[in-house]
Amino acid sequence: MIEYLEQKKELINGIPSNYICDIHTVHSAGISFPAHFHSYIELLYGLEGRFNVLLNGKYHYFAKGDLILINSKEVHQVNALDEFGGNYIVLRFEPEVIYNNMFQNYSELKYTLPFLIENPKQQKVITKDLLINTSIPELLWDIHKEMEEQNYGYELAVRNHIGRIFLWILRYFHTNNPNGIFQFSEDELYLRRLQPALDYVPDNYMNEIKTPDMASLCNMSSSYFSRLFNRIMNMTFNDYVNHIRLKEAEKLLVSTDLNITEISNQVGFNTTSYFIKIFKENKGTSPKQYQKEYLND
């Protein structure tokens, strides 16, 4: 079995960022970026030169003015086709950027589901002729400018622009193929079955949460619940619980005078050492350093 490189979150001012935008330039034909995957949803927008992207064994071509969509955790490799190379805008963002209350509301989660679950029917390339009279190119350049200049409030501008791009793609797909990639009837059914657990965790993260109890809440066996959760949500149930707890911990770190042990206890971690370990694995820095970096901004 081939093991691919998992690209971790990139850091901005020492803190893992939920969105990144830059221009990737290559100067010759060949591999522009080797096969890898990451939790980000990724968009590539061609500026100069011709490229192809290998996604799950299939090549997708793009050139100047074309847009490529790469799902979260989808293995991909970018290759330059011209001798002089070329360049393209790279926009990466975590699913939670477009869905702030992550995994808590089925009516909104269904919009992000197609970008989290692998689907061979999903359109990967939106060509220049479809984008030329839209706001998408301008929004991508604006995001790049905001990320470079980092003027006051740039984070709000970036999130707003990403939301507008995502909404355009969502509506474009729905208009052109309303019964295609967004008709995840089986997955939507399974998602509804998981909803009691998804609702329970954000309201009870500070307490002990056991997988067998959540499986029972969803009327499933523990093993089936775990397998289904992992497949539909693209993460384990424990990862989901930790995600919610870490989000709450982040709020407390920057808005209260509580120490690390008190915060760890308040958000439901059994030990401070485990909280620090999980925080560093997910955020790339310790809770204390995260707090210092935030307060120094």
From TrEMBL:
UniProt KW keywords: DNA-binding, Transcription, Transcription regulation
InterPro entries for the chain: AraC-bd, Homeodomain-like_sf, HTH-like, HTH_AraC, HTH_AraC-typ_CS, RmlC-like_jellyroll, Tscrpt_reg_AraC-type_HTH
Q: Is Transcription regulation a UniProt keyword of this protein?
A: yes
Query: One short Pfam family name for this protein?
Result: HTH_18
Which GO MF terms are attached to this record? DNA-binding transcription factor activity; sequence-specific DNA binding
Q: Which residues form the HTH araC/xylS-type domain?
A: 195-293
Asked whether the keyword Nucleotide-binding is assigned, the reply is no
Under the heading SMART domains, the entry gives: HTH_ARAC
Q: What is this protein called?
A: AraC-type DNA-binding protein
- Which organism does this record belong to? Anaerosporobacter mobilis DSM 15930
